[in-house]
Amino acid sequence: MFIQSFGEWLYDTPISTTFRDITWVIPAVQSIHILAIAVVIGSALVSELRLAGLIATDEAPGNVVRRYLPWIWRALIVLLASGTLLIVAEPARTLGNTIFWVKMALVLGAFVLTMAFRRPLLAAQAGDSATPAKPIALLLLAVWVVVIFCGRFIAYT
């Protein structure tokens, strides 16, 4: 009930009304959001496939991850900012939507998994890590794919 009343309050705020009234704001923010998703997915794809041992096997996994991890974090910040603007503009579309909350839980889960498992994998020498790199890498890829699907389904639920 709190989320619904908060969404109604947010919808009536001047900033929310302004975002909806200026016709180019929501499409522009959505475009930025989608570009940031592309950066996260592209960087995660390369990093995770390397950790799974499927690409760039001639390069140390730590080097590949160190190269792409900053891109992931920066793009996640852009996603957070643009997503917040989209919520402010259309709170009923998101805050009351179960798929939105599933997406947020998955993003949080991917963040936690990345933080929990990236450091040991980077610190370990190739082949020395007791952490199962391939299953975790493939799990993270799957989570990001599901996040994309959830984001698309928000519009249809």
Keyphrases for this structure?
0% strand, 80% helix, mainly alpha, 157 residues
Topology record:
Blueprint: H1 2-11, H2 14-21, H3 25-51, H4 61-89, H5 91-95, H6 98-123, H7 133-153
Question: What does this protein structure show overall?
Answer:
The chain has one domain (2-9, 25-156). It contains seven helices and no strands. The chain has helices at residues 2-11, 14-21, 25-51, 61-89, 91-95, 98-123, 133-153. Helix 3 (25-51) packs antiparallel against helix 4, helix 3 packs antiparallel against helix 7 and helix 6 packs antiparallel against helix 7 (133-153). The two termini are 19 Å apart.
How many domains?
A: 1
Helix content: over 70%
Report Rg.
18 Å
| General shape | elongated
SSE order, as H and E? HHHHHHH
- Summed over residues and divided by their number, the pLDDT gives a mean of 88
Q: What share of residues are in beta strands?
A: under 5%
Number of helices: 7
* Biggest β-sheet strands, sense, barrel: none
Count of individual beta strands: 0
First and last CA, distance: 19 Å
Poorly predicted parts: none
In short:
Helix 4 packs antiparallel against helix 6.
